[in-house]
From TrEMBL:
Record key words, sorted: Hydrolase, Protease, Signal
Organism of derivation: Paralabilibaculum antarcticum
UniProt protein name: Peptidase
Signal peptide residue numbers: 1-25
Keyword Signal: yes
Keyword Protease set for record: yes
One Pfam family it belongs to: Peptidase_S37
Superkingdom to which the source organism belongs: Bacteria
Lineage, top ranks: Bacteria, Pseudomonadati, Bacteroidota, Bacteroidia, Marinilabiliales
């Protein structure tokens, strides 16, 4: 009898000890839980004060996820916390982290937000640059490591999203790790299928109204006809702004003029009536040109933070070129101009389209619950995803929208359709 009582007391003690440990674990602060994640440093910061708390994390990541001996780098991550009972929106950056603010989806879903800086950008740079480790598969593995670590704390629905190259990166991550999250929302994300995707040229030849396209051409033509005078103004402008052009001033000006239609349709905000006509002065031509297609886009110092982007564009994810035929008599180039000027002292990068081709096929067949947002006029919509018969994903195109298109940019009925799609996929009610 005594043995039975002693066993019962011991059992009760062990149960109470287990319960105490369980309650203790539950009572741990979020910061303590974050600090238990292996290979991460955590600091509480002010950040976006719309969140209950905000943290900056640095993950120690493998340069090569298939070879730990290749070395490591520190990857910056931001965490805006509301509650572990709320969904988690992951802002996957294609570049550096641009903002600590809550994004559109986080606000819409009243969700927590995890923002991941892309490898090889700003605070997530390796000590030395070895381009072989900058590819979409390695970047997706970075994001997978981070998401899986935080999913041990946040158990509700997970959504990835990103804008422009961040939208591309969101697609790539989902391709390699389709089960990391329930839903993905890439914004204005191109899927280029060639190093210089010619669909960009086709788009620029048909977008918007013909009278606008004609006026754009006439503006470019006027710039080339007045190039000698524009070069004098451009030289003073470059000195004032402290610009330096690896390709030389004249080619930089040529590129700015050729870039003009791409920039005009990409960003919007400039109307037909804003484009200078045949009576414009040379100064008016130049001022309008740099307002829409600034020469800083080709400045050596301005290019440096984006070298990783250009490496990816020229080796794996694709880009565009500039057509010279319409202005051949004013130019001294044999072929369309590419972005190889970014790496003037390096061999031309070999482009491998195989990853983009595979992802394109996957999106048209097996991909699920990816909601694509595009702007109709945006130049990057030229290479927008074509889902074909895959109705497991959805694509919404904002009429006359630019690269700035967001869910709130759409007409009201289309907004409702987008929101209802998200509600169905996430199985939750969204209160706008």
């Amino acid at each position: 009898m005594k043995k039975h009582i002693i066993k019962s007391i011991c059992l009760l003690f062990l149960l109470s000890l287990g319960l105490s440990n369980s309650l203790l674990a539950k009572s741990k602060s979020l910061e303590e839980k974050l600090k238990q994640i292996p290979n991460v440093s955590v600091q509480k910061i002010k950040g976006d004060t719309t969140f209950a708390s905000y943290f900056e994390l640095y993950f120690t990541q493998a340069l090569d996820h298939n070879n730990p001996d290749a070395g490591t780098f520190q990857q910056r991550v931001l965490l805006g916390h509301h509650s572990i009972d709320r969904p988690m929106v992951v802002e996957i950056e294609g570049y550096q982290i641009w903002s600590e603010k809550a994004g559109e989806l986080s606000k819409l879903l009243k969700a927590n937000q995890l923002t991941i800086e892309h490898r090889y950008f700003k605070n997530s740079m390796p000590d030395s640059i070895d381009w072989q480790y900058l590819n979409i598969k390695q970047a997706a593995a970075d994001q997978h490591v981070i998401i899986q670590a935080l999913k041990k704390i946040y158990k509700e629905k997970w959504i990835t999203t990103g804008i422009s190259k961040g939208g591309q990166t969101t697609m790539y991550h989902r391709y390699f790790y389709p089960n990391d999250v329930e839903v993905s929302v890439p914004y204005v994300a191109p899927l280029n299928l060639a190093r210089e995707d010619k669909r960009i040229h086709e788009h620029l030849a048909s977008v918007g109204k013909k009278e606008t396209r004609d006026k754009i051409y006439q503006f470019q033509l006027a710039c080339f006809k007045n190039k000698e005078k524009l070069l004098t103004i451009a030289e003073s402008h470059a000195k004032e702004k402290k610009y330096s052009f690896l390709m030389g001033l004249e080619k930089a000006l040529d590129l700015s003029i050729l870039e003009y239609p791409f920039a005009y349709w990409q960003w919007g905000g400039i109307t037909f009536y804003n484009i200078p006509d045949e009576n414009a002065s040379v100064n008016e031509l130049f001022e309008h040109l740099i307002k829409v297609s600034g020469m800083d886009f080709f400045d050596e110092i301005s290019l440096k933070p984006s070298l990783a982007f250009y490496h990816q564009a020229l080796s794996e994810i694709g880009m565009y070129s500039y057509e010279i035929v319409p202005f051949k008599e004013y130019l001294n180039y044999k072929d369309d101009l590419t972005f190889d000027h970014v790496f003037p002292n390096e061999p031309i990068r070999k482009f491998d389209a195989s990853s983009m081709v595979k992802i394109n096929k996957w999106l048209q067949t097996d991909a699920e619950k990816i909601l694509f947002i595009y702007g109709e006029y945006d130049t990057w919509s030229a290479t927008a995803v074509n889902l074909k018969e895959n109705n497991k994903c959805q694509k919404f195109v904002n009429p006359e929208g630019s690269h700035k298109t967001r869910i709130k940019s759409f007409p009201e009925e289309m907004q409702k359709e987008i929101v209802s799609t998200l509600e169905a996929w996430l199985d939750l009610k969204i209160q706008k």
